[in-house]
Amino acid sequence: MSNAVVDLTQSSPPPMAGPRAAHTDSVLMSAIDNAQPTRLRQTLQELCKTVPDAAKVTAALLLITEKRYKRKREESEDGDDNGSSEDDGEDEDDESGTDEVEEEANEDSDSSAAQHKHARSRYAMCENCEEEYDVAYNHKGDCVFHDGELEVDEDCFPDHDWRCHGPMDTPENRKDYPQSFVYTCCDQDGTSDGCQAGRHKELVNKKI
Fold it and tell me: How far apart are the first and last CA of the chain?
């Protein structure tokens, strides 16, 4: 049995092969599936600090340069105004390289500093629909939401006694009985997707 030790500080750890590798991959995927978000963040951050290639790949996947972000936003706005969409070219554009984050980093002697100086997060949470979205592809109609408040329809709880059952408007009731709640903006019940549509609006300082 091998006693080899994998050094995580090296950019290319020695690969395993055969059944042992397949078993390790299976166990690892299961561990990732079961890990808590905080644990996954800590693990990924540690990898980025100790393995240069891991940091490079992670940056290509999670960051976008400010230059490319502005260009894609302008293309999106122009496409919406012209009644067309840039989505058809999304895959081709993304496969042209590992994003401009890497290109700008290569132009600077300190690649880490360059990435942080000229890049931003590619994914954000939307303030309106509360969904994650790709800031590079944000078109009119992508965000569907209600701009009113969700209120309880008391007629749907004819036998409700707050002294016995507690309040009607609770997170549990909203989840279990969405049809018993109504949006003030359109009088649709809680099962409706939304009455307004537009572009996503970034929610600042919100972790995904």
Answer: 43
DSSP string, 164-202: HH--S--HHHHHH-GGGEEETTT--BTT---SEEE---B
Summarize pLDDT for 38-86 with one digit per residue, the tens.
999 999 999 999 999 999 999 999 999 999 999 988 888 877 666 654 4
Which pTM value belongs to this model?
0.65
At 126, give phi and psi (nearest 5°).
-90, 135
Strands (E), the chain: 63-65, 119-121, 123-125, 132-134, 143-145, 150-152, 181-183, 196-198
**What does the block give as tokens for 107?**
């132009």
Distance between CA atoms of residues 10 and 14, nearest Å: 9
Range scoring the smallest mean pLDDT among 2-6, 116-120, 171-175? 2-6
Location of structure tokens 């989505």: 87
Question: Which pair of structure tokens corresponds to residue 65?
Answer: 């340069």
Determine the Cα–Cα distance for residues 97 and 106; give it in Å rounded to an integer.
Answer: 13
Instruction: Please indicate whether residue 25 or residue 99 has the higher confidence score (pLDDT).
Output: 25
The dihedral built from the CA positions of residue 28, 33, 39 and 41, taken in this order, carries a sign that is positive
14, 38, 83, 93, 144 from 89: Cα distances, Å: 37, 34, 15, 6, 23
Residues in the chain: 208
